[in-house]
Specification:
mainly alpha, 2 domains, 19 helices, 0% strand, flat
Length: 402
């Protein structure tokens, strides 16, 4: 590390403001602060609220996503290896099979290492493309604005790949993250000024732009010729009986089901939530409000029932462990930039998301997921919710003091 420190120190005079290559300073600063703690100090008056800065906050969120990444690697490989075994495919085709063979591994679904490494071979390219393209856009905008590269993209670059199916074409990953960074964030001023979650905006864009690669039965397991619906899609098409004959609630809770790479495990999301709540990074009010809003709505629709829509027959407990509900509740809805900021507003915002996700899932069987749209809808209304809460507080104080 001393070699890197000396190298960066020698390079600094060439990129500092006023130097010949000052336009490269955002790139230099991003690398320097990623590898080392900043060496400069604040010269003017300061407000210090606590000991956490943007980098520490992003690192905390990144660590909290660790269990979801681990399940993404294992479950992606497990689903692929299991269905290859069922189809009689003895070796993994293509370059992935060559790498597995070189490492002395195979595609045995009962072998933990086989599953994890096979899953890594699908997740790693998506992760790399996402961060390379998204990071490039961040660097371009920082250079043009003569600003430092924001650490906020570190979380976006991890969240977005976890919401994708393993079969997603890499060029679509590049287009999706470009939309999320450029349109949903940078055009509004960059980190801290966007009103929509960039990762969810990217996910929504490619879902509606390329539905064939983001929905249907053939995109959730990385096996050519295999077709298998996600649990929510299965219920929407055939009812709860078709689901319960294939998987158990505990399997869904642990994450051994079809779905986006990092969204299947409720347990992994709960482990991440525990860290976010312990450190104070995530809002327990938003999480609890989403949970209560979803449970209340799911219970009402379950009791109402329907003879024509099988989604009405889903027990509320199943809603909590299927799709991206837990992942969205913990990591997306609590985004401090796009969520409501007032304490009362957090309850309203979270309750609105919980209500909408179940409403979309049940009332619109053609789109049985719902969490992505519910959170984006909540993002849109978060400023209005905060404004109404503040106005109500002002009126109450006027009445009290008047």
């Amino acid at each position: 590390m001393k070699f890197l420190r000396k190298f960066l120190d020698r390079f600094h005079p060439h990129v500092k403001p006023g130097a010949k290559y000052e336009r490269l300073y955002p790139l230099y600063e991003a690398i320097d602060t990623f590898l080392f703690s900043p060496g400069h100090t604040t010269r003017g008056a300061t407000h210090v609220r606590d000991g956490i800065d943007m980098k520490r906050l992003m690192i905390t969120v990144g660590i909290s996503l660790g269990p979801c990444v681990a399940v993404a690697l294992y479950n992606t490989g497990f689903q692929a290896n299991t269905n290859m075994s069922l189809m009689g495919i003895e070796t993994v085709p293509g370059w992935k099979g060559w790498i597995l063979g070189f490492l002395g591994l195979g595609n045995d679904p009962s072998n933990l290492i086989d599953n994890v490494v096979h899953g890594l071979l699908y997740f790693a390219p998506v992760f790399f493309v996402c961060n390379a393209v998204g990071g490039l856009w961040e660097l371009i905008f920082a250079t043009v604005r003569k600003e430092e590269v924001s650490e906020g993209f570190l979380v976006t670059g991890l969240l977005f790949p976890l919401t994708l199916p393993p079969t997603i074409p890499l060029w679509q990953v590049a287009i999706g993250i470009s939309f999320g960074v450029v349109i949903a964030k940078e055009l509004f001023g960059g980190s801290g000024k966007n009103f929509l979650n960039p990762a969810l905006s990217a996910r929504a864009f490619i879902f509606f732009a390329y539905p064939a690669q983001m929905s249907g039965d053939a995109v959730w397991t990385a096996v050519d010729g295999f077709s298998g619906a996600t649990p929510l899609g299965l219920v929407a098409a055939e009812g709860m009986e078709a689901l319960t004959t294939q998987i158990t609630w505990s399997q869904a809770f642990l994450g051994q089901i079809q779905g986006s790479m990092g969204e299947t495990s409720t347990l992994a999301c709960l482990l991440g939530a525990a860290l976010l709540l312990y450190t104070g990074v995530g809002s327990w009010k938003i999480m609890l409000a989403v949970l209560l809003g979803a449970l209340a709505t799911a219970t009402l629709l379950y009791l109402a029932g329907s003879d024509t829509n099988p989604m009405f027959g889903m027990n509320p407990a199943w809603h909590l462990v299927l799709g991206g509900f837990a992942f969205g509740l913990v990591f997306m809805a609590t985004d401090p930039v796009s969520a409501a900021l007032t304490e009362t507003g957090k309850w309203i915002y979270g309750g609105l998301i919980g209500f909408l996700v179940i409403l979309v899932r049940v009332i619109n069987p053609a789109y049985p997921e719902g969490m992505m749209l519910a959170i984006l809808f909540g993002n849109v209304f978060a400023p209005t919710i905060d404004a109404l809460v503040v106005r109500a507080h002002i009126k109450r104080r006027i009445r009290r003091d008047g």
